[in-house]
């Protein structure tokens, strides 16, 4: 039984490139009818500009980015997310040798912001995703050496 998972990319542009080259054709085929609206096309194109704005340059040098932590509703509040986060820290430090990673959290997601702050992440900036949706950029150092 899966009660939660964590995902991270150690090179998000490379992940996007891989996905587009490997699955872009088939996803594009099925998504084409939904992409006929200009607003949706803009959202897709926005992904290619992610991380390039001046306000993001300070944290854009970080290649690693936490993509998600998900815990089943029935298991929330039992320390599962903390365990997942701590395991991620071990992987980032020992296997991948990353010194820090960024976390993008929606401005409205107060519980997530509090969780990442509790785990030691520091708010470093803001980003506007899809034009009008503000998110905060956190940075979590993996080791004390950074």
CATH topology descriptor:
Aminopeptidase
CATH architecture descriptor text: 3-Layer(aba) Sandwich
Rg measurement, Å? 17 Å
Total helical elements: 5
Distance between the termini: 37 Å
Instruction: Determine the fraction of residues in helical runs and give it as a percent range.
Output: 40-55%
Shape: globular
The CATH superfamily label reads: Gcn5-related N-acetyltransferase (GNAT)
Domain count? 1
SSE-based structural type: alpha+beta
- Biggest sheet overview: 5 strands, mixed
CATH class membership = Alpha Beta
Sheet with the most strands: spatial strand order: 1-2-3-5-4
H-E order? EHHHEHEHEE
Q: Give the averaged pLDDT, no decimals.
A: 81
Overview in brief:
This protein is of the alpha+beta class. The protein is built from 5 helices and 5 strands. The protein has one domain: Aminopeptidase, CATH 3.40.630.
How is this structure best described in words?
This protein has 146 residues and is an alpha+beta fold. The chain has helices at 12-31, 38-49, 57-60, 80-95, 110-118; strands spanning 4-9, 65-71, 100-106, 122-129, 133-141. Strands 1-2-3-5-4 form a 5-stranded mixed sheet. It is globular, with a radius of gyration of 17 Å. The model has no long low-confidence stretch (mean pLDDT 81).
């Amino acid at each position: 039984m899966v009660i939660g998972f964590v995902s991270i990319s150690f090179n998000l542009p490379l992940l996007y490139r891989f996905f587009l080259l490997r699955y872009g054709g088939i996803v594009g085929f099925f998504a084409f009818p939904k992409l006929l609206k200009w607003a949706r096309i803009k959202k897709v194109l926005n992904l290619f500009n992610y991380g390039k704005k001046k306000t993001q340059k300070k944290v854009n040098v970080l290649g690693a980015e936490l993509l998600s932590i998900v815990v089943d509703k029935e298991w929330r509040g039992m320390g599962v997310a903390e365990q997942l986060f701590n395991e991620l820290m071990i992987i980032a430090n020992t296997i991948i040798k990353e010194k820090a990673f960024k976390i993008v959290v929606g401005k409205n997601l107060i519980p997530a912001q509090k969780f990442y702050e509790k785990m030691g992440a520091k708010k470093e900036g803001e980003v506007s995703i899809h034009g009008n949706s503000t998110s905060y950029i956190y940075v979590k150092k993996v080791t004390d050496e950074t």
